[in-house]
Structures are given as C-alpha cells and as structure tokens.
Design brief:
The complex is a heterodimer. Chain A is of the alpha/beta class. Chain A has helices at residues 8-19, 28-44, 60-63, 79-83, 121-127, 130-137, 146-154, 388-396, 401-417, 423-436, and strands spanning 68-69, 93-98, 101-108, 116-120, 159-163, 173-179, 186-188, 191-196, 201-210, 216-226, 231-239, 244-254, 259-266, 271-280, 286-295, 300-309, 315-324, 329-338, 346-355, 361-370, 376-384. Chain A is globular, with a radius of gyration of 21 Å. Chain B is 40% helix and 28% strand. In chain B, a hairpin with a 2-residue loop joins strand 4 (53-62) and strand 5 (65-66). The relative contact order of chain B is 0.18. Classes of the chains: A alpha/beta, B alpha/beta. The A-B interface holds A 387-390, 392-401, 403-404, 407-408, 410-412, 414-415, 445-446 and B 48-51, 71-73, 75-77, 81-82, 84, 87-88, 90-93, 97-103, 105-106, 117, 141-142, 158, 162. Bound molecules: adenosine-5'-triphosphate and magnesium ion. The site of adenosine-5'-triphosphate has 14 residues of chain B, from strand 2 and helix 1.
Chain lengths: 447, 251
C-alpha cells in the first residue's frame, strides 16, 4: 500500500518528532491530552465523502501534498506588512501569529485594560497550565472530526483570553493569523480559548491572511464561553489567497442571558470550510450568526453552522449570503436543534445565494430539528440570479450593463457587511469586494 | 423625432403589437389610450429596449437613428426615457447614486464634463421642486418601500434630472390621488418644451385636462384604431372602448 503524500499517515508519522517542541510537552496532562487527540485523529483521519457533514466538500486536494508544521517561531514579516492588513482608523489590541506562533514584535497590547487576561496559549501552557487545563480537556472540538483532533495534537499556539466579570473592552481584540513560506508548504494550527465572564463585553476579530509563496494549510479551532449576561461580538475574516486550504472550527457555549454575535466573512482560499457551533445551554441566551461568502475561479467555500437550543427562552437569528462566480462552489448547511426543554425558543435562519455564472454552484441545506412544542422557528434558502427587471431599470436610466450588475451584486453583499459595527472594517471590506467585482472600478464613489 | 413604421412585436411567440405607425415631432405631446392588454406597455418597453420583446416587422427611427439597434443604456444616453408603469424596487442601490451614475454617463456620451457630488446635489435639490419630492426619499434605495404615489413622482423627478428628448410615461397617473395628480401633471408641464417629445400612456381622460396633448391615439388589439385631438379622449370617456372596438370590427 502506498501512502498519499499528505494523508493522515503523513501527520501521524510526524508527531513523535514534533511532540517535544509543542507547548505543554513537559506538562503531563497536556502531553496526555495531545496523545489522546492523536489517537482520535488516527481513528478518524480526514473526513471523506461517506461522512454526511462532508458530502459536498472533498479534502482530497489537501491530502495530495504534505504540509510541514513550523515548530519554532521565526517571523520574517515587518510591521508595515501587518499594518496594511488592519484597516486604517481601527484602534485595537493587536495580537499577531505568524505561521502558528505568537509574534511579540508585531503585536500591540499596550491598550489592554485591567480585567483582561490575554496571552499566547503557548505561554499560558508554560507558565500557568492549570488556567487552561479544564478548558482544553473538556473541549468537544477534539473529538468531533479529524481536523479538530489534528489541531489538538499539533497545536503550536493561539490566543488565550479571559475577561474577568464586568470587564468591558472598548477596543476590539484583533487576532491576526498570517501564514506562508516561500520555500515549503506549511500548516498553521492554532487553538484559541476565549472566556468572557459574567457581565463582560468584548469584540474579537479573528483574521486569517496569507503572504503568498507555497501552499498553506490553516487548521484552527476557537472555543468561546460566554458566561451569564456577557456579550461577545466575534468577527471572522478569511482572506487567504488562493493557494490556501482553510479549515476552522468555532465552538461557542452560552450561559444565561448572554449574547453572542458572529460574523463570518469568507472571501479567500482555494478550499475553505468553517464550522460554527453554538450551544445555548442556559435560559435566555441569544445568538446572531451573520455570514458572507464569495467565490470565484475554482474556489470552494463551505459553512456549516449548528445552533443547539437546550433551555427555554433562547433566541437565534442566522443570516448568510453567498455570491458565486466562475466555477466556484459554495456549501451552506445550517442546522438548528431545539431540545425538549427549550420551550419559547425563537429561531430564524435565512440563506440567500446569488449565482453570477452558469458554472457556479451552491448546495444549501437549512435543517431544523424540533423536540419542544412551544417554539417559533422559521428557515429558508434561496438561490437566484440578478434580477433582470432591476438591471433593465438601471440601464433605462443610462447606467451601463456592467455597472448595473455590479451595483446589484454589491447591494446584495453589502446588506451583510453593513451588520458589522466596526466602521473602518466595513469600509475596507466594501472596497475589497468592489475590487473583486468585474470592472469594479466603475463603482467610483460608492464607498 | 420618432418615426414608427409598421411595427409588429411578439412576446413569447404571441403577437401583441400588430402594425403600429406613429410620427412624433419635437415639442409634441401624444397620448396613447386603450383597453387593458391592448399593447401600450409593450410599445413603451420596446421603445426603451427591454429584452424579451421580438420585433417581427417594421422600423423605429429616432433622431435619424435605428432605435432598435441600440441597447437600453445607449437609448438613455441618446435621450430616451421611460417612466415605468410599475417602477422597480432595488434594495441596496441608492436613488441618488443611480441617478448620478446615469446622468454622468449621459453627459460623457455628449462629451460634457461629469458633475461632481456638490453640483449634482444642487441639481437634485432644484429638480425635486418640480414634483414637490420629499428630500428624505432621495437617500433611500431606489423605490424601496415607496408608496405607489411616491414611486410615480420619483419617475417624473428622474425625468427632470435626466432631461430626455423623448419621454414615454406609462400610466404615470395611475394610483395617484387628485392632489398628487395635479403635482405630477404640473411637473410634466414644466418639462414640456419645444425640443422634447412626450408620449403619455393613460387610461384616464382626467390627466389630459392637466396635460393637454397635441394628439390622442387609441390602441386596441395592438394597432392604432383612431387618432384625433383632445376631443377623442372625451368621446372615449363617454362611449367606452367598446365604441372603438365595434368601429374597428366594422372597418
Ligand atoms: N412576458 C409576457 N409573456 C406573455 N404575454 C405577455 C408578456 N408581456 C405582456 N404580455 C401580454 O401582452 C399583452 C399586452 O400587454 P401590455 O402590458 O402591453 O398591455 P397594456 O396595454 O399596457 O395593458 P394595461 O392597460 O393593463 O397596462 C397582454 O395580453 C399581456 O398579457
Ligand atoms: Mg400597461
């Protein structure tokens, strides 16, 4: 039997050489946790087409080439490389990871308020492992699929954030994950652990970018706990270039009367998959999931979301839009499960897709499972082209066809972007999206 | 200015317009009346260049050019304007942005300089007065959430900004209350001039009390059955379309 260059065997074989370099290797429980994860990865491997959750997303292309883990930090980037990625005018706490390792030189944590315990996960595992033990050991992300298990086994770093009760962050925490190497294909495996304690509030941006060069494989996991009455806004930006393979899992647990607002903006990578799972495990919790995905060329972009309403009076609102052009393929699967005790649940889910070309494709599947009887749930998905009546109306006013199409496409997309509360980010995303539209420069003065 | 000769149009393989001849000179206002489904909007759409209409015979010459060879936006650049019977709502596309893009495209076409934001806004303010347009509507998306009357006003406001040579107003009076009708009709009258031709499609004689046409045509079964002056509209009002249809049948 021959093994494929980047198959699960490749990563399994690398582990013994990597293990001693990974954070927490000299802490027995952490080392055991990793080995446990590795065994889980051995069992699961990478997901295949027989796996219902991966029916429309094949990872065969990922398995065709080996991606090296970068075991020691070595940043080749300058501050100017970083600064152009974050929109001008955003005042934030900046935490930068290069190829899976925290970079102190590129980060700026001067504005960190008291009450926010923020550090790199590797540092935390070295200096204060007890603070993260139960958070790591109890995370279900290790066991659900091969990617989560692989991440736990090989995780090199990530962010640890713990907001003490009543801590309110005025500035967003901007987590910037940059990957890329000129000479070899590399993988970046970060794990982020975020806990917002009672009555705290924060906005966290999780931003993925690549520097070019050889192919990259991002495999990240973010666990977020939103405790009683806390509010977390979480903006995930995926802007890797098209040599990127991007896999990311976001696992959120919400407690009483908490609020979690997720934005997932997926514009890049050759193959991108984001899983968002929110568990409303106490009464009165609310989550909003907004998302935008755009694909062109041969890009493949997949979102799987799942919201579990476990207790009464929960609310979830989901709004995802996709624009597919060229031969791009989109996948959206949104599942809402209303458990037996979750009476008075209010849940709505919308997924709208715009196909700009004949060969673009979308597979969309909203799923609703209801085990309680007194609930209000609605869901729906649409797939369509640009509205001919609207195009004709605009043209009859003198607007040429290309501009009319761009205006309508932009309007479709901007509806989601406008939900983001950081104005300079909104503007930058709008500009990025305009530049991606065919003849996008004709939309002068729009943003 | 506009010369339509023996125009035949089919929609989805079904003949709708069956030989229209129409000559309109600069400065004239022509009213086109006719029963539901007689082909009035079809004619208006064909003039504006909407796809889905197949011209099976005949010609349309506008300012010496073959109008049918031009795309909808090229027609707009050449000065053709359609006020829609059912204006389209376009969420997310700002009214002002659309108009500015349209007007500047028209100006570029004529080798004129584009208007900047400041000049454009002052033009807009001035033109809004013509139909007593509420300023708050301008910053909204095109027709989105506008009442029926606001939509119709918006059409005439757009006409005022784009200053077409040939304006086709398809039932701009429908759905307007009497006060709004007076305002809109007053706006159209202000836009009447010796260089501009206007085609008014309407069901109601009352519009023609405010906008007095040079000619009235009655369309039925995709053909112009009668042409006359304002008094033809009064006769129609008295006798109904049946009167024309029976005459057409007898002819
Ligand atoms: N896309 C289409 N497919 C099939 N038939 C069509 C289509 N568009 C128009 N028609 C038909 O063409 C005929 C003429 O329609 P048109 O809209 O031109 O009438 P109209 O005179 O404007 O009527 P109204 O007074 O009700 O506005 C109607 O019978 C209509 O059903
Ligand atoms: Mg009509």
């Amino acid at each position: 039997m021959t093994t494929v260059a980047g198959s699960s065997e490749f990563y399994l074989a690398q582990f013994s050489a990597a293990e001693g370099h990974l954070p927490g290797h000299d802490t027995p429980w952490a080392a055991a946790w990793r080995r446990n994860a590795l065994n889980r990865f051995r069992e699961l491997g990478f997901p295949g087409h027989r796996d219902e959750d991966w029916k429309y997303t094949s990872v065969k292309a990922l398995e065709k080439q080996p991606f090296d883990s970068v075991l020691e930090p070595s940043s080749h980037l300058a501050l100017t490389d970083i600064e152009r990625l974050i929109p001008a005018g955003v005042e934030c706490i900046r935490i930068v990871f290069v190829n899976g390792h925290f970079s102190r030189a590129l980060s700026d944590t001067a504005a960190m308020p008291a009450g926010a315990d923020v550090s790199s996960l590797a540092t935390k595992l070295r200096d204060e492992p007890a603070a993260v033990q139960s958070l790591l050991e109890n995370s279900p992300t290790v066991f659900r699929n091969g990617f989560g298990a692989l991440n736990a086994a090989f995780m090199t770093d990530g962010v640890f954030i713990r907001l003490a009760p009543r801590t309110v962050l005025k500035r967003p925490i901007w987590l910037l994950f940059i990957s890329g190497d000129q000479d070899r294909a590399i993988t970046s495996q970060c794990r982020n652990v975020i806990v917002a304690d009672t009555d705290s509030q924060a906005t966290i941006v999780e931003h993925y970018s690549t520097t070019g060069g050889k192919a990259t494989f991002t495999n990240s996991v973010t666990s977020i706990t939103v405790n009683d009455n806390a509010r977390v806004t979480h903006i995930k930006l995926q802007q890797e270039n098209t040599t990127g393979f991007h896999f990311s899992e976001i696992d959120v647990t919400q407690n009483r009367d908490s609020f979690y607002h997720s934005h997932s903006v997926a514009l890049g990578a050759a193959l991108a998959r984001t899983d968002i799972r929110v568990t409303l495990q106490a009464e009165g919790a609310e989550c909003r999931l907004d998302g935008l995905y755009m694909g062109d060329g041969r890009q493949h972009v997949d979102h799987h979301t799942r919201v579990d309403h476990v207790k009464p009076h929960g609310k979830s609102t989901e709004y995802y839009k996709g624009v597919l052009n060229g031969n791009a393929r989109g996948v959206f699967n949104g599942k809402v499960v209303v458990h037996e005790q979750a009476q008075k649940t209010d849940s709505s889910q919308t997924n709208r897709n715009l196909l700009l070309s004949r060969n673009a494709e979308i597979d969309t599947k909203p799923e609703l499972e209801i085990y309680a009887d007194d609930v209000k749930c609605a869901h729906g998905a649409t797939i369509g082209q640009l509205d001919d009546d609207a195009i004709f109306y605009l043209r009859s006013r003198g607007v040429d066809e290309a501009l009319a199409r761009n205006l309508l496409t932009f309007a479709f997309v901007d509806d989601v972007i406008r939900r983001i509360e950081i104005a300079p980010l909104r503007k930058q995303l709008e500009q990025t999206i305009l530049n991606r539209l065919p003849a996008g420069t004709s939309l002068r003065g729009l943003v | 200015m506009l010369s339509i000769k023996d125009l035949h149009v089919s929609v989805a393989g079904k003949p709708i317009v069956n030989g229209i001849d129409l000559e309109i000179k600069a400065g004239e206002v022509h009213a086109i009346m006719g029963p539901n489904g007689s082909g009035k909007s079809t004619l208006a759409h064909v003039l504006a260049g909407r796809s889905g209409y197949e011209v099976t015979r005949g010609t349309v010459t506008y300012m010496g050019k073959d109008l049918l060879a031009l795309s909808p936006d090229e027609r707009a650049h050449e000065g053709v304007f359609l006020a829609f019977q059912y204006p389209v709502e376009i969420p997310g596309v700002n009214n002002i942005y659309m108009l500015k893009a349209g007007l500047n495209a028209i100006r570029r076409h004529h080798g004129e300089e584009e208007l900047d934001a400041v000049d454009f806004l002052s033009l807009v303010r001035e033109k809004m007065k013509i139909v007593d347009m509420d300023e708050s509507l301008m910053s909204r998306s095109v027709n989105e959430g506008f009442s029926g009357g606001e939509k119709k006003r918006n059409e005439i406001f757009q006409m005022a900004v784009l200053e077409p040579r040939l304006a086709v107003l398809d039932e701009t009076d429908s759905g307007l209350d009497i006060d709004a009708l007076k305002i809109v009709a007053g706006g159209v009258n202000k836009l009447r001039n010796k260089d501009r031709a206007i085609i008014l499609v309407t069901h109601y004689q009352r519009l023609l009390d405010y906008i007095v046409p040079d000619k009235v045509h009655v369309l039925a079964h995709g053909r112009i059955q009668r042409t006359g002056d304002k008094s033809l509209a009064l006769e129609l009002e008295k006798h109904g379309y049946g009167w024309i249809e029976s005459k057409a049948g007898a002819a």
